[in-house]
């Protein structure tokens, strides 16, 4: 007689309770891990968001400051424009006054542009080739000749010392003037000149003279190679510029 195999015995109550506890612990561990992960994610997002908000706030503050500065600049320009308009309205109240204002402005523009003859106190600088040359003159004669850079240095120093008008050999210096080498001569306002070069400058004679003759100044530097004399004058006359004043491209 065959007997049936033994059926699996059901879990006892203690074993069943232990299985439930283990399952519950596993669930709690998974839930705890997910909660921790979520907290970390939220915290990181808050940090990132805070940093982004801070940067955005700084950027917006800078943009605001820039905008306020532009508004302030525009208000200043507007105030100036209103003042100019008021002056123009007052001047236009009388046709004679209007003509006088325009004439004064035109004269000022012409003086600044070098288109009128000017006179006043100043200095006269005479530059020429060295008369008493060194022993190396035969080997290097150009060393003792006046070059365009010598004239440029003197002219720049005089303008830097508040010269109001300046000429070289009666060629008025204006914005478009050039001083450049042209073989054995120097081109000034597209005209060639050789030594001696006579520079006239209107301004404070004492200031202009000191600018050139101070210790270690241009006269000290150039005197070993060329002859330079500087004279103060109570009145000199500088002619107007007579070159081309037409502009081909500039508006």
Please tell me how large the radius of gyration is. Answer: 44 Å
Shape: elongated
Named CATH architecture of the largest domain: 2-Layer Sandwich
Q: How do the helices and strands follow one another from N- to C-terminus? A: HHEHEEEEEEHHE
Kindly report the CATH topology of the largest domain.
Alpha-Beta Plaits
- Which structural class fits the helix and strand makeup? alpha+beta
Helix content: 40-55%
The span between the termini is: 126 Å
The CATH homology group name of the largest domain: Protein of unknown function DUF881
What is the strand content? 15-25%
Quick check: average pLDDT? Answer: 76
Largest pleated sheet: 5 strands, antiparallel
| Strand order in the largest sheet | 3-2-7-1-8
Annotation field: number of helices: 5
């Amino acid at each position: 007689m065959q007997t049936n195999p033994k059926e699996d015995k059901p879990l006892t109550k203690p074993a069943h309770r232990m299985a439930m506890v283990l399952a519950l612990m596993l669930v709690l561990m998974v839930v705890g891990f997910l909660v921790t992960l979520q907290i970390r994610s939220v915290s990181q997002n808050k940090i990132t968001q805070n940093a982004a908000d801070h940067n955005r706030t700084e950027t917006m503050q800078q943009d605001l400051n820039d905008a306020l500065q532009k508004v302030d600049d525009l208000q200043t320009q507007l105030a100036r424009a209103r003042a100019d308009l008021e002056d123009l309205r007052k001047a236009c109240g009388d046709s004679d006054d209007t003509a006088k204002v325009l004439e004064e402005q035109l004269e000022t523009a012409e003086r600044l542009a070098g288109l009128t003859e000017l006179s006043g106190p100043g200095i006269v600088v005479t530059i020429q080739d060295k008369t008493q040359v060194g022993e190396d003159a035969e080997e290097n004669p150009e060393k003792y000749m006046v070059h365009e850079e010598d004239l440029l240095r003197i002219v720049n120093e005089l303008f830097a010392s508040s010269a109001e008008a300046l000429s070289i050999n009666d060629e008025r210096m204006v914005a478009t003037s050039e001083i450049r080498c042209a073989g054995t001569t120097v081109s000034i306002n597209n005209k060639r000149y050789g030594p001696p070069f006579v520079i006239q400058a209107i301004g404070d004679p004492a200031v202009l003279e000191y600018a050139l003759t101070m210790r270690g100044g241009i006269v000290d530097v150039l005197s070993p190679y060329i002859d330079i004399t500087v004279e103060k004058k109570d009145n000199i006359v500088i002619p107007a510029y007579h070159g081309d004043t037409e502009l081909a491209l500039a508006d």
